[in-house]
Amino acid sequence: MSYPLGIPIPYTCLPATPGFQTSDHTVAWLLGDGTTSTDLTFSKTWDTLGDKTAEVTATNTITGGAATASKTITIDAFDWISYNIPSPIQILAPLFAQLDADHILIAGGGSGIKDTYTFDGTTFEKKGDLNYPRTNNYNSNQIIQLAKLADGRLWTVGNNPNDATAASTAEIYDPATGTWSVDTAWGNWIIPTLPDVTPLLNADKAYGCNVIPTPDGGVVILGGMHQDATFNGYCIKYRPGVGLIGWTTILFSHLTSLGINFHYPPCMPCLVPMADGRIFGFSSGQNKNNHNLYDIFIIDPRQATAVTASTEVSPPDIADRVISWQAMPDLPGVTDYLPITVTGTCQGQDGDLYVMGVDESADYARTFAWRVASNSWEELPLAPTRMYNVYFFQLADRYLMGTGVSTSGNFGSVIFDIKAKEWIMQRQYAQAPPKNPGPAWYSAFGILDGYPVVLGNPAQSVPPYGSPEFFRGRF
Fold it and tell me: What is the 3-state secondary structure (H, E, C) of the chain?
């Protein structure tokens, strides 16, 4: 396990012996750099890099018995470093996904691009082109538009507002062959007329949608809009290559008041797959009075498992095809008006859910945790900078990373310690110029060999179009 240079490391991360934290024990610490301590609880800050072996001896004050434990940890610089590995294409708003532990896949992006590559940390390898140009819409890293299916294939839909054919088609990438194929089952259905419900998802309303894979081989699709700015009002579950499985009307509480009078429509929800198969969601929109509204919800697609070989969805199947929608309580102190325009969401390894977003009223980001055990929100300490379009993800058992663009226009990242409940560092990307005028979230992300990596830098409009950057410091 690596820990950051110059950051206090709590004693709970150091070695322990049975019972050494009880009142009838004394302790003696050797901290690997010549320093010692006899405190039961403390934090240690190392100011040099490298491996440190900490040792503790606990002595029972009643029996005189003693036990010793040791642990070696690595103190790392923890910063973004750039590698001179020019990408073969301009990585600007591509579809991207973690293909496996050793490869990130990027596809499309920019204008009219169909190229597909895998990247292993040192080499870009050309794969088969997309059948249609596609791009990662709505400028948000948190919008998942390339879903990794349970069988290892990748699936995407729409994501081209300028091409009607591309907008209404889906494609499947097979890593075994390195090629894309059109998913002919997408949109090939007849929708029943349900009482008081407008027709279900139009197959071409997949611009800016979010797709989340399910453990049973399906995908859940939420959000999206047509080129005419009409919003898709349904959440559906679909099995690639097979057909429609289930649906529900999107049951927004606050966002419904937007009606058609929106400036930024609620078509780009942040969705997070939960460990139990449900999906946590956060969606926001802005009306033409510049008021931000939001909804938080959990959808449960697990019961929607009925599949028919027919292309017709008949009323008898409706009961088996309904997706459960649960509205979540409002954030503490924040009602339907939300001073957070774009959020990142993730589930920590502690099982709790985290939301991070921009506070438009101040120069920082606000972060909240949904505590599953108590079914309640907790507001966490303010992030050290205001970051837009945050890509928020779990790094290890105690760290979350948010990466995006800061108020100054720089690319960068912040790291949160979920056990200590504190932000431990803020770093800028190595290549990031100050006050970059372009959208700093137009990049691809993944983790290779234990290191977070970002591909692409839109500040560079000429080759090499942004060499990869890795966050130094293995978690």
Answer: CEEECCCCEEHHHCCCCCCCCCCCEEEEEECCCCCEECCCCCEECCCCCEEEEEEEEEEECCCCCEEEEEEEEEEECCEEEECCCCCCCCCCCCEEEEEECCEEEEECCCCCCCCEEEECCCCEEEECCCCCCCCCHHHCCCCCCCEECCCCCEEEECCCCCCHHHHCCEEEEECCCCEEEECCCCCCCECCCCCCCCCCCCCCCCEEEEEEECCCCCEEEEEEECCCCCECCEEEEEECCCEEEEEEECCCCCHHHHCCCEEECCCCCEEEECCCCCEEEEEEEEECCCCEEEEEEEEECCCCCCCCCCCECCHHHHHHCECEEEECCCCCCCCCECCEEEEEEEECCCCCEEEEEEECCCCCEEEEEEECCCCEEEECCCECCCEEEEEEEECCCCEEEEEEEECCCCEEEEEEECCCCEEEEEEECCCCCCCCCCCCCCCEEEEECCEEEEECCCCCCCCCCCCCEEEECCC
